[in-house]
Amino acid sequence: MNSAAQGAKEIKKSEGEEDEGRSDGNQGGGHRLWFSAQLVSLRNGKGDEKEKNGAERREEVRDGDKEQMDTRNECMEQEQGMRWRKGAIRSVEEWDGAMLEEDEEEQEDRRKEKEVHSILSRMLVHSSASSSSSSFNCSSAESDEVFSEGEEAAARRRSSRRHRSWRTFLTMMQWSKRRQSSWVQLAGHQGNFQLSRGGVVLKRFSEVEDACLRALMSDALQHFVPRYHGFIQQDGSCFIRLEDLMSGHHKPVIMDCKMGVRTYLEEEISKARVNPTMRSDMYQKMVKVDPSAPSREEHHQGGVTKLSYMQWRDRSSSTAELGFRIEGIMLENGSVLRDFHQTQSSAQLMETLLSFTQRQLHVLRAYRSRLLALKEALRESQFFSTHEVIGSSLLFIHDCTQKASVWMIDFGKTAPTPEGVHLHHNVPWTEGNHEDGYLIGLASLTLLLGEAIKQASGKDLGSNSGGLACKEADS
Ligand SMILES: Nc1ncnc2c1ncn2[C@@H]1O[C@H](COP(=O)(O)OP(=O)(O)OP(=O)(O)O)[C@@H](O)[C@H]1O
Ligand SMILES: O=P(O)(O)O[C@@H]1[C@H](O)[C@H](O)[C@@H](OP(=O)(O)O)[C@H](OP(=O)(O)O)[C@H]1O
């Protein structure tokens, strides 16, 4: 086969793989559809839902925006003044009663929670009152031996009820465990997120991010960004409401890659020049990773400027060189790895990608296809051509089913380019040119995934079987 034919075959294959990769995105779309329908229903006060197409959904976001305009200014004021309560993630129970909108799924969740508590209390009471019940005899055959004939019918009923209760209890505990353990904040400012329900996460309001998400909902990139559901005010704080990208995944395996050749804004350079504030927390983080990193003066002061810290982070990781870095990974068993500060070389990164995907070819291919599709969407995107994308991440998510997808998140430092500046996104940054190097990072990741696919093709152990030892009902 000549190389052109081979190329064509590769492209065809990629398209097929892309379908696979998108199937998750589409499922996300299905979820979005459902969620939007709930919002419409709440607004119209109607129970009957109609499926809505993409255009209608976008319109809905705009309607929601109109309704929320009154509180937006207040949120922006709060953003300036509010001191964020560190570690403010609250439990599901504490969040109860606090949501502005409670949809059917939320009501069902609440009902299940109450049932779990009531079954649990009943069982504990029963268990302490009766020694025989402590072993939870579930077999009716065993029960037959224990009960006399006269009591048999009632005993059977009791036993069967107990059996059902126990099974329901186990199912609910599994459900409860899944709900509580499935969400993780892998990177970023801890305490920035709150648990929510109905496939939504709440993130601390930022005017910059709010503006980006609004624009993105009708951009060519919309299928690569979590659905934006506007913002809410809660207990005096404002949150943006985002589609929970982990929702619907069973034991998700996730990776956060911060994109671009730099993670600081050009204005942060000017700020550091005019008013160089020493940060002792950043100095501590720096010496923990590399005691020789601070200069003699910084050691003496026990502090570094934020700019100096950020530049060191970019240089000592793969950011400056390859245009992205790994911020964190959560494995299938829930363990979280965040120590990638000095993961810098292509070899280290590829090894990490192979471990993260457990060398599963279908996962590696789905990720690569999704990145190729993202590249296309970025080419068409009006948003991308007019914004400097700094500190934004790609969130990779897969699980033991066939789902694997990549999403753009975190637009807190993404700003419109200054008048007259046109970005290429794939050329080196020099101060004043505002280039972010986003496409350099995307190309590096795509290349590394390609290499990983080659490596895994030789040594793949179980790509067709789903790879990970993960069953739907094993939790
Ligand atoms: N829509 C989402 N669905 C599921 N998880 C999310 C979503 N958005 C963010 N996360 C999780 O939260 C983490 C941090 O997200 P994000 O980067 O937006 O936070 P941040 O505090 O703004 O970060 P930074 O401090 O780098 O600006 C991600 O790594 C991911 O684990
Ligand atoms: O990842 P690390 O090494 O912990 O360092 C943090 C990271 O660079 C964040 O991007 C940055 O927040 P911004 O991007 O929002 O500036 C934060 O600054 P901060 O401490 O001033 O919030 C740093 O501490």
From TrEMBL:
The keyword Glycoprotein does not apply. It catalyses: 1D-myo-inositol 1,4,5-trisphosphate + ATP = 1D-myo-inositol 1,3,4,5-tetrakisphosphate + ADP + H(+). GO terms for cellular component: cytoplasm; nucleus. Keywords: ATP-binding, Kinase, Nucleotide-binding, Transferase. Residues 96-107, 142-151 have a biased composition (Acidic residues). Residues 1-81, 96-115, 130-151 are annotated as: Disordered. GO terms for biological process: inositol phosphate biosynthetic process; phosphatidylinositol phosphate biosynthetic process. Its EC number is 2.7.-.-. This is Kinase. The gene is LOC114782471. Gene3D superfamilies: Inositol polyphosphate kinase. It comes from Denticeps clupeoides (denticle herring).
